[in-house]
Amino acid sequence: MLLRAAALATSLSALLLAAAPAVHAQGVINLYSARHYSTDESLYNDFTKATGIQIRRVDADDAGIIARLKAEGSASPADVILLVDAARLWRGEQDGLFLPIRSKALDEAIPPNLRAAPAADGGVAWFGFSTRARVIVYDKIKVKREDVDTYEKLGDPRNKGRLCIRSGSHPYNLSLFSAVNAHLGPEKTEAWLKGMVANMARAPKGGDTDQIRAVASGECQIAVTNSYYLARLMRSGTPEDRAVTERVGVVFPDQASWGTHVNVAGGAVARHSKNVDGATRFLEYLASPAAQNYFANGNNEWPVARGVTTDNPALKAMTGGRSFKIDDTPVGTLGTSQVQVQQMLDRAGFK
């Protein structure tokens, strides 16, 4: 059995390396990306025009990229890693897959709560480059806005039988629940999770878009979603999608208290990069105003660099053109309580 497992691991590594980008040159960076948006092509082309550095890209999801980096080890050709969730960025950091870097440009551009905590030498393992909010959508006909204006009210008995939500173990929810835990503490957070289970209109299933559609169809009356899923429906040319957005309202929770939870898409220099200078230049480029708009608008998100705003029409409509209060809990710390939160979910019966 051990020999078979070793042979399988060797075969997997061989396949991964065979599919890897070509040998390094200083004028090339190899990018492993979980982002699959058409606007990113312009992002990469503009970087090459400005620097002369070519980008060779491998696309996969977050979990696939993390697994690939582990399998490749020190032989990995990766220079830059782009992932789309803070929990997965944190996981990559904890697994030693990223190389902490020191960059004055990134330190000045990216707020501290949207990047990894500095290492002992001052290096930072990863940086957020766009944000999305974890918002509440509700049936405008059947639900009062004030009944869903905080995350805590999702577990209030007034909302019994109303709630739709995806799996509690999904990273988007784990990050949200970890943020709530940071504010309420374990005892109150677990009681809140049990309250949400009691309020569910059906068992958790599907993705965030499915939750929005379920509210519009009357299957439930409130749901939790990342803001960009709603923005996609708002920008759709399909009449069915527009009908969905006309039926639902949106709340940015906890504006009178700690603020709305946000998650990030971000990037890092790979631990075994053969072109650290080029990789660092690329991350610094992502913090520039022009790149921030490409990066954020590719997925209907908000830029994070200081002083950069967006003209995305769906995001403006969602917020009424106003800024909203953001929970300033450092997203890089939320992963530390996720095992504890998962145990709470198990005890609460939150699937």
Task: Please explain how this structure is put together.
This protein is 43% helix and 14% strand. By secondary structure, the chain is α/β, with parallel strands linked by helices. The protein starts with a helix and ends with a helix. The protein has 2 domains: 2-130 and 262-319, Periplasmic binding protein-like II (D-Maltodextrin-Binding Protein, domain 2); 132-260 and 329-348, 3-Layer(aba) Sandwich (D-Maltodextrin-Binding Protein, domain 2). Strands 1, 2, 3, 4, 5, 6, 7, 8 and 9 form a 9-stranded mixed beta sheet that branches. The longest helix is centred in the N-terminal third of the chain and has 17 residues, at 2-18. It has helices spanning 2-18, 39-51, 62-72, 86-94, 104-109, 171-184, 186-199, 208-217, 227-235, 239-247, 276-286, 289-297, 313-319, 338-348, and strands spanning 28-33, 54-59, 80-83, 127-139, 163-164, 222-226, 248-251, 262-269, 302-303.
**General form:** globular
What is the chain-wise order of helices and strands? HEHEHEHHEEHHHEHHEEHHEHH
pLDDT averaged over residues = 91
Question: Which homologous superfamily in CATH is the superfamily of the largest domain?
Answer: Periplasmic binding protein-like II
Q: Quick one: biggest sheet?
A: 9 strands, mixed
Q: Portion of residues in helices?
A: 40-55%
- Whole-number total of structural domains: 2
Number of strands: 9
CATH class of the largest domain: Alpha Beta
